Fold Uracil-DNA glycosylase.
Amino acid sequence: MSGKITDFFEKKTTTTIDEAENKDNDKELTSTTTTTTTTSTTSKKKVAAAPKKKAAVASKKRKHESSDEETDKEEQQNDDDDDGEEKVENNNNNKKLKNEEKSEEINSTITDNNYYDDIENYFTDKQWKEALSGEFGKAYFKKMITQLNKRYSSKEKPIYPPKNEIFSAFNYAHLEDVKVVIIGQDPYHGKGQAHGLSFSVKKGVSPPPSLINIYKELETDIEGFKRPLKNGFLEPWARQGVFLLNAVLTVEEATPNSHKDFGWADFTDAVLKILSKQDQPIVFILWGGFAQKKEKLFTNKNHLVLKSGHPSPLSIKHFIGCKHFSKSNEFLKSKGIEEIDWKITE
């Protein structure tokens, strides 16, 4: 822009000088036709006046050049100011972007940790919550819960049981009131079945094959037991101190053992170790090879360990006749502990 202004003033100045010189030449011709003396006098005046006119023109030109320089400086200053403002704006934008990114990161962390925070609400029993507080803070547990939170949130494939029922087994009886522990492998993977208790299904859901076989064994083992045909809800056992624990507490729909590598085994092993250290006598019932691998965790001689095949139809012949229910009651009675009423009504 400054270059255009300078060109304009230079052209204007040149035009002014040319016009002044043309006027002087016209006057000079007019004076010559009058008289020689006048011509001489006029010529002298012109000679004397010419330097003044040229000086005035030069001065005017210098003013224009000075004005151009000031204009250039002003424009440069404006450009510098614009650059400065742009830098400030860029810095502000960068800060804003960083703050937004940090906010997103915090929000993401909060989102990931929501499930972990909710666990405080899922554990309603204070004794269990206190006993397991050390596990909640471990890296494997936080990683597992974060992973589970994403799986539950994505809804690509249903996860069972619902989040608020994962720890149901811990909320039916205080740690000090546990009498019998029955270890399962992982939850039922059919819709509407699992609710946090091993081998149990929700109200209104027909008993699965393994539970039907458990009922069959009870019919031959416990006098007066009548097998319910439509009720597989084992809550009455849980309320009496039967701890129905799966080694893995979650599963994807129609995909058994899908969460076996999530870290649940570390958690439930810690649970079993805590139970093993309890002074009150406990019966540990281990059905099948998977559950029997946990036997090494029970080093307390106060407890009783019972083993047999799994109640699944695939291994039923190694399960039927084990009499684990009557044996559990005999042990509890011998220790002065109230026996379990194994009855399940329709």
Summary: Confidence is low (pLDDT under 50) at residues 1-75, 81-88, 98-115. The first helix runs from residue 2 to 34. The CA atoms of residues 32 and 39 lie 5 Å apart. The chain has two domains: 2-94, 133-334.
